[in-house]
Amino acid sequence: MNEPTGGTSIPLRVFFTLTIAAPMRELTERFRAATGIDLDITFDPTTLLVQRIEAGDHADVVVLTKEEIDRLALNGTLVSGSTADVVRSFVGVGVKAGARKPAIETVEEFTAALRNARSIVYSQAGASGLFFADLLERLGVASEVNAKAIVIPRGFTGEFAASGEAELAIQQVSELMYVPGVDVVGRLPAEIGRDAVFSAGVMASSKRQAEANALIAFLRSADAAPVMQHFGLDLL
Prior knowledge:
This protein is α/β, with parallel strands linked by helices.
């Protein structure tokens, strides 16, 4: 999904995880107003963005899971010393706006919600989907849930909750909040929940490293913090 902005400058090309798609709707314009730099953003799950990078595709700035940022920095794909942690995100549950919200505060309640839901949607490629597939195994409900699950290759699971195609949507809280018509039930119980750190880095192939570093600094700034927090993200 590409979301170029307007303006006269040559856009800075960036690959961003879906996790920060919601706050970037506002922050893209704030960054342009502050710097005069437009952004050409590709939003996708980390796994798919990494595939593009490893196939030779180019961006100036990337925001991916910390694990992938560290790996790409180690192999020289990213500029040494350019990487920085940006936000901490949490996996949550969403439902169609106005629908009954199941109790999910405890592991027992969450497991019961999974069993009682008529359908559940999660992503095959995203960090939250990979985590959730493993969690189903650990909870002992993988066969039962997957028999009624919608597993999408990419994108926003909340779209299926908003349309009524799925009763429960599983994804990063910020990604659930991206979709109109979705109510966030809450984060997964702490005992089984997973927080993920998303980090940024400048690609070694970038010829606009000063501007790329300015974008990373902006994403971690006090100006960006309240917008990130509004979408359930903790700034690091």
